[in-house]
Amino acid sequence: MSGPLNLVSHPLVQHKLTLMREASCPASEFRRLLREIAMLLCCEVTRDLPLAQVPIATPLEPMMAPRIAGRKLVLAPVLRAGLGMLEGMLELLPAARVAHIGLYRDPATLQAVEYYFKAPPDLAERLVLVLDPMFATGHSAVAAVDRLKGRGCRAIRFVSLLAAPEGLAHFHARHPDVPVWTAAVDRELDEHHYIRPGLGDAGDRLWGTR
Predict the structure, then answer these.
(1) 40 vs 207: CA distance, rounded Å
(2) In this predicted structure, what is the pLDDT of residue 188?
(3) Beta strand segments in 26-82, E
(4) What is 5-54+64-207's CATH number?
(5) Distance between CA atoms of 173 and 206, rounded to whole angstroms?
(6) Domain ranges (residues) in the chain
(7) Mean pLDDT of the chain
(8) What is the pTM of this model?
(9) In Å, how far are 28, 43, 118, 127, 141 from 154, measured between CA atoms?
C-alpha cells in the first residue's frame, strides 16, 4: 500500500496537466487531456492490485499467467467534474462497477451538500476509487468518503488532478487511512477557495458552462 499522499510525476502527466492549465485550452481539448491523464493515474493507483496465476492456452502451448484477483473495482466519480475522469478509467477497467456521488458546495458555508447517491449493492466488498479532479477545501472529498464508509467500505483510494495543501490537511485529519493520488499539489487556496495557480473551475471547463 502506498502512503497517504502519492504525487504522480510522470512526464506525460505533467506535460498534459500544463496544457490543461492554459486559459486558452478549449473544452474539447480539456476533456481529452483529462481523460488521458485519468488513464495514466489509473495505472499508478492500481499498481499494487493482487494477481493470481491462472492456466491459459497461448497459440503455441499452455502456461500459467497472471490475472487480477478478487472482485472488480468500483469507480466513484464525484459529480459533475469527476465524470471527466471516469471515461479514461473505464478504458483501462472496463469491467469496473460505477457509483455516482452527487455533491455541491454550499456557497455560504462551503460545506458539501449531497443531492444524489447510487452505488452497487456489494460496494462494501470492493476497492473503491473516488474520482474528483479538484481537491480544494477537501469538504467534498470528506463527504464522499464519509458516505462510502457509511455503506461499509473499508478499501478506498482518492484520485485527483490537482490538490491544495489546505484541503489535503483537512481530509487526512478526518480520513488518515485513505490515500490520495494526485498530479500536483499547488500553492494555496485563494479567498474564493479556488486552487492557485490551479486551472479554474474544472466542471465549467469540461462542459463549457459558467
Answers:
(1) 22
(2) 95
(3) 51-57, 62-68, 74-79
(4) 3.40.50.2020
(5) 30
(6) 5-54+64-207
(7) 93
(8) 0.92
(9) 36, 21, 18, 8, 16
